[in-house]
Amino acid sequence: MNTNRPIRVLVVDDSPTMVNTMATLLSQEPRIEIVGRAGDGNRAVSLARLLRPDVITMDLLLPGLDGPAAIAAIMSDAPARILVVSAVADRGADLGFQAIRAGALELIAKPNVTSGEELRKWGRELTNSICLMAEVPVISRRKIREVVPPLLSKGARVDIFGLAASTGGPPALAEILSRLPKDLPVPIVVAQHITEGFTPGMVRWLSQVTPLGVSIARDGERLEPGKVYFPLDGHDLTIDRGLARLSPTRGGPCPSGDLLLSSLSRVYGGRAGGGVLTGMGDDGARGLLDIRRSGGVTMAQDEASSVVFGMPKAALDIGATEQALPLSAMPDFIRNCCLKPSYDRPRGDGA
């Protein structure tokens, strides 16, 4: 967007107190201009069409159209960058991932406090998210071209596959996991950057779209084929001799894609596979490079299908992979490198 003008923000929430609180916190940032306020989904859609804001903060439990329905209408008629700001209750978390599927970019939990330094800290985090999001190109819904994934040399095979993702990651993961078979012969481990409190909702949502088992890993749990593992909120996931290891995050992107992918390189060497999906920043690039250096299989999402090309670009720039694939080609790529080659299968009596 044009950096010479303020970031124009529409605030949507059915609580006048919350709207006023957010407007007050955001108005302290000179780069942000509050251009509108809405207390229900229908009004939000109307103002989005009229005002064409750069960023919309969107509650989910709204009168009239709920958050996901309002987001779907906005992305159809007046595409904008949408940041969900909602309470982390079971229904709120589940609606959050319906909102992500409809086109929202990120989820942020509402604050548990109403005054003091904690509220100001939350306001700074919200402001920072809006300023970062304003740099993301607005993407309306589009059909991604189908591409045949490249053939792997002599049928390179892996025993585990790791994925790292951030902004735009949940719908990308849904697309990939929904097209993998229930009998996939390896486990999949994922580091998806997400606000604390939303991981259980993401796991429930993804469980509905894939035949694979999706769960939050337990420390010391042995990984099983055909299952997908996410770390606990606020924790990093690494793998040690086929066991999940959880540790409280040490700062930086959470969970860390670099830590996860590097652990696959150490444990599995050339039998590890990894990919970096859409997201801001460069997390996952160094971990993916470790997998490539150990002889494993690597890939990154291409620019055309990424919501944000930051993480995949970082991986490509440092030579962590040469495979820049559209999202539509990734499920076949993963399936191809996880299937056991025919010469590994036991022969019949007549062979």
Task: Summarize the structure in words.
There is one protein chain. This protein has a seven-stranded parallel sheet with strand order 8-9-7-6-12-13-14, with helices on both faces. The chain contains eleven helices and 14 strands. The longest helix is centred in the middle third of the chain and has 17 residues, at 117-133. It folds into two domains: 7-133, Response regulator (Rossmann fold), CATH 3.40.50; 153-340, Methylesterase CheB, C-terminal domain (Rossmann fold, 3-Layer(aba) Sandwich), CATH 3.40.50.180. Residues 141-146 and 342-351 have low confidence and may be disordered. It is 34% helix and 20% strand. The chain has helices spanning 16-26, 41-51, 67-77, 90-102, 117-133, 169-178, 199-207, 257-268, 285-293, 310-317, 330-338; strands spanning 7-12, 32-38, 55-58, 81-86, 106-109, 160-165, 188-192, 213-216, 227-230, 235-240, 243-248, 272-276, 297-301, 324-325. With 351 residues, it is an alpha/beta fold.
Attribute tags:
351 residues; alpha/beta; Rossmann fold; seven-stranded parallel beta sheet; five-stranded parallel beta sheet; 14 strands
Helix and strand topology:
Blueprint: E1 7-12, H1 16-26, E2 32-38, H2 41-51, E3 55-58, H3 67-77, E4 81-86, H4 90-102, E5 106-109, H5 117-133, E6 160-165, H6 169-178, E7 188-192, H7 199-207, E8 213-216, E9 227-230, E10 235-240, E11 243-248, H8 257-268, E12 272-276, H9 285-293, E13 297-301, H10 310-317, E14 324-325, H11 330-338
Parallel strand pairs: 1-2, 1-3, 3-4, 4-5, 6-7, 6-12, 7-9, 8-9, 12-13, 13-14
Antiparallel strand pairs: 10-11
